[in-house]
């Protein structure tokens, strides 16, 4: 019996509101397919902001700050797929998601790109404006980490203002459901390829693109 597909959804909202409702909807779709979807609510974490050390471009080891971020990174690395979900605040991504992207990307993911070839999905939630900009920002972050971003036809952008409005956006939810289905399908295909061939379907050879550090120093720590 095959292992169920495991998806971790990073919820960048400060509230248990529309973004959480969309992720609960996504979890129900995943459950119907026999997959597991776990939402990580950044609002519930002890997450420090990037500190004043300023040595991120020279470090060869993980971030020295002590908070809950390493545990979230470990969940992501163990998963088959990752969903990045955030509401629009001030015409951009909610600050919790931005802080997480900075802490995770600079402090943990840049050393050997451990999310390479994992399946990515992106959801933005907005009243009306900037849903596309936030969706694009989160998508570029997934691509930076060498993930496989699946499409859903129209992007998974859900429009909502008051609590509960997200569940009234039928078109947005349809796109979310389609995205989750395709994430499960792609994860299953990738797992089958690994089982049959013992290797990744896409190259992960050059796992670190950092500049300004001698290659031999990087290799000693990767």
TrEMBL record:
Nucleotide-binding: is it a keyword of this entry?
no
The Swiss-Prot or TrEMBL record annotates one GO molecular function as: oxidoreductase activity
Residues annotated as signal peptide: none
The NADPH-dependent FMN reductase-like domain extends over 6-153
Question: What InterPro entries does UniProt report for this protein, alphabetically?
Answer: Flavoprotein-like_sf, FMN_Rdtase-like_dom, ISF_SsuE-like
Please provide the record's keywords in A-Z order. Flavoprotein, FMN
Q: Which PANTHER family match?
A: NAD(P)H-DEPENDENT FMN-CONTAINING OXIDOREDUCTASE YWQN-RELATED
Name recorded for this polypeptide: Multimeric flavodoxin WrbA
This protein's species is Actinokineospora auranticolor
């Amino acid at each position: 019996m095959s292992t169920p597909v495991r998806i971790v959804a990073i919820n960048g909202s400060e509230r248990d509101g529309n973004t959480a409702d969309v992720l609960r909807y996504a979890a129900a779709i995943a459950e119907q397919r026999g997959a597991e979807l776990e939402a990580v609510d950044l609002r519930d974490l002890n997450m420090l902001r990037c500190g004043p050390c300023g040595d991120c471009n020279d470090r060869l080891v993980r971030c020295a700050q002590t908070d809950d971020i390493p545990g979230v990174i470990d969940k992501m690395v163990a998963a088959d797929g990752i969903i990045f979900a955030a509401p629009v605040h001030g015409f951009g991504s909610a600050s919790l998601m931005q802080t997480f992207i900075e802490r995770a990307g600079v402090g943990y993911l840049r050393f050997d790109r451990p999310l390479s070839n994992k399946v990515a999905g992106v959801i933005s939630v907005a009243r009306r404006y900037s849903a596309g900009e936030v969706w694009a920002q989160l998508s570029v972050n997934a691509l930076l980490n060498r993930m496989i971003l699946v499409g859903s036809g129209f992007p998974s952008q859900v429009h909502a203002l008051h609590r509960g409005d997200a569940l009234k956006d039928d078109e947005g939810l349809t796109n979310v459901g389609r995205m989750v289905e395709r994430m499960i399908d792609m994860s299953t295909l990738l797992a089958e390829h690994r089982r049959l061939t013992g290797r990744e379907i896409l190259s992960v050879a050059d796992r670190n693109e950092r500049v300004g550090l001698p290659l031999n120093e990087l290799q000693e720590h990767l």
